[in-house]
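Morning, I've got a small favour to ask if you have a moment. It would help a lot if you went through both lines with me. I owe you a coffee for this, so here goes:
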Amino acid sequence: MANSMTGFGRGEASGHGYQFTVELKSVNHRFFEASIRVPRNMMSFEERIRKLLQEKIQRGRLDVYVNVKETEEKKRLVKVDKDLALSYDKTLKELAFSLEAPYETDIYRLTALPEVLAVEDEELDLELLWETLHGAVSDALNVFLEMRQIEGKKLAEDLLKRLEVILTEKDQISSFAESMVPDYQGRLRERIQLLLGENSVLDEARLANEVAVFADRVSITEELVRLQSHLDQGRQTLQSPEKVGRKLDFLVQEMNREINTIGSKANNLSIAQLVVEVKSELEKIREQVQNLE
């Protein structure tokens, strides 16, 4: 399946006194890479989110933003450090005794001393919060994947058209290739005849040998067969349910290899011009393939 590597998705979910908003966005990258930003007190969710994304996404650099908002007033708890309070009381008694001063334990004064009382927020139940956050991430991921599929379909349609253009140009190259040897033979015959004169006898066997050497040197039959095979594989790959980016990238490299060999072997101006056009289309395809997962 041709999925674009760029996309955006947003999801929201509320529950257990919190509202989560999750945003995903991605750009091209050879591998999977995710930068996940979550509140400090929920850092344990980062790896869970990463795993959830990796189940659906193979390539791309993702930025994930998790925003949290409290929807209910949270309970606040007062905790007493009893050991510290007793230590304060004991020390004050010893000080009063040393100074021969009266001392009576005053609980209210003790609680006013540093760190005896502490106000804390109610401890988060991370498992309950994950249920809510999981829903927000899933919603954002579904929107994100849908956008990738839509863009990927458009890219696939464009790539199929470009492959058809190359196929047409490849058939034209094949047509010109068929006339290369006869044309060369005719030109060579005329040149030799001109050099030897009209009344001289042409050595047909030697001419045939020279033409055979030329035909072997400029033959591009194997390259055309392989190019046809790569084009067929490219079209099949674009219609495959699998991820296609890496395979298409490889096929474009192979097509470039074949067309370069054709250009270096074919002794024909028309073929040379078509080779330039094919390479231009392949470069456009290569750029588009970089956008596919």
User: Anything to note?
Assistant: The first strand starts at residue 7 and ends at 15. The chain has a mean pLDDT of 87.
